[in-house]
Fold 4-nitrophenylphosphatase.
Amino acid sequence: MSIRLSSPEQYDALIDKYDTWMFDCDGVLWHGDRLIDGAIDMLHILRSRKKTILFVTNNASKSRKSYKGKFDQLGVVASVDEIFGSAYASAVYISSVMKLPKDKKVYVIGMSGIEEELREEGVSFIGGTDPADCTVEPFSLANFTLDPTVGAVLCGLDVHVNYTKISKAFQYLTRNPGCQFLVTNEDSTYPSADGLLPGAGAISAPLRFALDRDPISIGKPATTMLDCIKAKVNFDPKRTIMVGDRLNTDILFGQGGGLSTLLVLTGITSEKDITGPNASSIVPDYVTQSIGDLRAAGSP
Ligand SMILES: O=C(O)[C@H](O)[C@H](O)COP(=O)(O)O
Ligand SMILES: [Mg+2]
């Protein structure tokens, strides 16, 4: 049973109980470029109480550096070292875990965030935002030249996805021996500023269906993301809380890492998902309407 937070005393005790606060972004801090009410004040309170703050997002459209730009634009205090995105975790996974040989490339279905993080990790890639792939022209297999050095396909949120990208990825995954199928994350939907949109999971779904093959998923709830954080930040899981809006990514991620979990209802999950006959079997430790509620705790 989740604890429903409501009183200033409860928020104050919660803040005292945890030294490290991991925040999901979409649906928790913001919707698109619109900040959720109270986000800045709440983060200020946590910083004034000497808490470690980390931002852990499955949204692969941006790199850590471009996320820093978004935080600055929105007036949110954050440093690049506090930001962990699925694009970053995917690039680290390919370079340090999969150890893709230097003479190999990645075929990307995704946006600049993935490209920037792959470059940072010294991983070569094709596809992505390349205009030749972002085409409306029909795909012609007859005119397609297979690049034998493609050793992995990485698929993330891509607002310019098309039949050409899916077809090229399909060629690499069916014709290049040992070509790995990776996705940054599997979120079915994305809470934009103007409402719900298909998520990264919906972008890789056609490829999964065509291949009848499941990819390796890097983002939450996979532990790969937590391993990335552990490689950079010291924290005690018992004194760490994951704050999220989605049960099957954020809350499962926290539970899988032995962290405590706080669900907010400003994003993907709503009251009907956690109460009543169809309540999810994923039960967070705490629930509150919005992160803005934590302002009731006040500064020291
Ligand atoms: O489709 C996606 O990639 C996700 O919906 C989205 O980006 C989730 O981001 P998060 O809530 O983890 O910040
Ligand atoms: Mg979210």
